[in-house]
Amino acid sequence: MPEISAATERRLRDAMERLLAGAAIRTDGRLIKENLYREAGVSRATMNRATAVMDEWARRVDGSQPRDREIESLRSSLADRAAQIKQLRERVSSLEAQLTIAATAIAELHVENQLLRGDDPSHNVTPMKRPNADSRRG
Which regions form coiled coils (predicted)? Predict the structure, then answer.
């Protein structure tokens, strides 16, 4: 199989660097072989003959696209936020329980304070009087 020229290899390597840097000129920038040969301006057959370049491409491109990396980053961030939300909800529940305990203790101390002063909280209730039969007839 014939080797490629040094100039063609240089074009392929320059194209690879542009793609990896996210600075594509002729393609959409995805890290796929089709974009590599199009970015370099060579045929697919010529690219396939550049075995050293293709080996380097395989080492440097792990099969994931830039968008895939961005999606993974977002998923990771989302998982972190979900864990943070879970912790915050647990904290809110704990604080609500503490608030209930504190409110109950304050209410009990208030009643106890009234009893110590001689105030009977049950005397604060005023019974409702039923209207007499004459006032209902109007």
Answer: 71-105
Q: How far apart are CA 49 and CA 55, in angstroms?
A: 11
Alpha carbon distance, N-terminus to C-terminus of the chain: 117
pLDDT for the residue numbered 3 = 80
Residues 31 and 52: beta-carbon distance below 8 Å: no
pLDDT at position 1, please?
53
- Please report, as a single letter, which amino acid is at residue 137: R
Phi, psi angles (nearest 5°) of residue 29: 90, -5
How far CA 51 is from CA of 5, 46, 54, 58, in Å, comes to 12, 10, 5, 10
Domains of the chain, residue spans: 6-63, 69-123
User: Do 20 and 9 form a contact (C-beta atoms < 8 A)?
Assistant: no
Q: Distance between CA atoms of 70 and 55, rounded to whole angstroms?
A: 25
The residue assigned the tokens 């696209």 is 65
Residue 124, pLDDT score: 62
Query: 30 is written with which tokens?
Result: 């995805």
**pLDDT at residue 111 in the model:** 84
